[in-house]
Design a protein that fits this description.
Shape: globular
CATH class of the largest domain: Alpha Beta
CATH architecture of the largest domain: 3-Layer(aba) Sandwich
Largest sheet: 8 strands, mixed
CATH superfamily of the largest domain: ANL, N-terminal domain
Structural class: alpha/beta
Strand content: 25-35%
Oligomer: single chain
Number of domains: 3
Strand order of the largest sheet: 9-11-12-13-14-15-20-19
Distance between the termini: 57 Å
Number of helices: 11
Length: 423
Amino acid sequence: MKYRIDEPLCDQPQTDFYACVQHWTKIFSRLEHEQIVLSLENSFSFLVCCLSAWMSNKKVIVPASLNHRLNIDSGDNFFIVDDDQFDQQELSKSTYLPQDLDPISLDSQIVFYTSGSTGDPKKITKTFANILSEVRVLEATFGKATDNAKFVSSVPHYHMYGFLFKLFWPFLTKKSLSFSGVKYPEELQNITEPFVFVTTPGFLQRVYFNDSVTFSHCLQVFTSGGALQEEQRAISNKYFAQHPVEIYGSTETGGIGYKSSASRQWQLFDEVELLAQQNETYIQSPFFFEDELHLDDNVTLLSDNKFVLGQRKDRVVKIEEKRTSLTLIENLIQKQSCVEQCKCLTLPVNGRDKVVAVIQLRRENKNLMTNDRLKLTSQIKRVLSQHIDKVFLPKKIRYVERIPTNEMGKITQELLEKLFNDQ
């Protein structure tokens, strides 16, 4: 089956969308390369080239970051497009209409890379049919709340969440969208029309204005990429007058569920099914082309298509023949009144795996990082020793102004490990 596209409602009306798509479709059609790598930071350029590649029957490759393209297997048969190449093209003076463009096969493929918890990019393939299915469900779930508003995003398009919520959901449902997005909280003050804000917990954490600033014309806030903390919920309620809609899912599974309150209960998206089999959870969904996928999270299924998330199974560690959960250690540390957030991992120390911790203190307790660091560390270890074996006490602790995140607002293994590379 084939799908015909239409012109986006966007903040770049001066650009001839059809001419751009037609131009790049001709370029890609002449190439012998079977795969097109889109190393494009500009979201308009990305949308044009993604559609053009599909119309040319090419597979689209989306690097995990703009630098990741250098690590793609050089033996692959691919052609790379970057922002400089796109900007240097001269478009035809001809006028094109939607019917002049080739339809897109539902079997067209796009490949994303996700770092996961290990830091090693994992290859995830989706079809255009998968994308359309997820857009259809998003529109059925949130369409009325997001009509007549412009989609504005702090999330890059080269992650699955941004790809859908920043670009393809508004584009395919003829909603207004901003290609430029926002990189800094201050840019939100430039938005005067009703808008939908697509963001992450990490970005919300940085939103700070005087009490007179509010964004009452924001109709909906979406957040994904990590668990929403209490302080981030408070920020959203203060400036946007609403609790964000949290989206739970992954690049591999697509959206799984959502919630819009501090409740632990999540609502399954329509057409998504969770199956419990011998203490394991599997997902069936039209958002991926496999029959089913295994979930790494512990999930408790409830009635009315609701569920509760537990800790990830891969967060249980074994040291000196003993086991514990990194999540348990994090929760114990976060119970300290001065701690805003904590992340634990295991690293080799003197040839043996040991638990290490990265701790972000609350804003009003930042002075402890310099004045009482040793006392604070002793206090944390004393509390932990009452609950866990001493082999799991953090061998190293890094106190940071803010726990580092990637462009998606995710805390990755790679970013945490870098904090310990200096010693």
